[in-house]
Design goal:
The protein is α/β, with parallel strands linked by helices. The protein is built from three helices and five strands, in the order E-H-E-H-E-E-E-H. Helix 1 links the parallel strand 1 and strand 2. It starts with 6 loop residues before the first strand and ends with a helix.
Length: 98
């Protein structure tokens, strides 16, 4: 049996929703991840960090919301420039300070 919403976007970001819609994907629902990124203190290379955070966000929805047969799309964004990593939390502090 076909379900209308087979895809879950594990994000509260409006921009990520727009990206899916631009790809022609409209049959999705959004859920905010139940994982607190601010408490993620593991030191990893940036390429592994974004993968780990994406996995933890998706897994938090899968386990806490008992998702079994839906596709969960999750992502994380980190900016690397001039040898420095700028994460979302850090960027907010810079924005507030300026």
């Amino acid at each position: 049996m076909y379900k209308k919403n087979k895809i879950i976007l594990a994000s509260s970001s409006k921009q990520r929703q727009v990206l899916l819609e631009q790809l022609g994907i409209n049959n999705f629902k959004t859920m905010s991840p139940l994982f607190d990124e601010d408490n993620f203190k593991v030191k990893l290379p940036i390429t592994k960090k974004v993968i780990e955070l994406s996995y933890l966000k998706a897994n938090s929805i899968k386990t806490n919301c008992k998702i079994n047969d839906e596709i969960i799309i999750s992502a994380d964004t980190e900016v690397f420039r001039c040898g420095k990593v700028f994460s979302k939390c850090f960027s907010k502090l810079i924005f507030v300070a300026t």
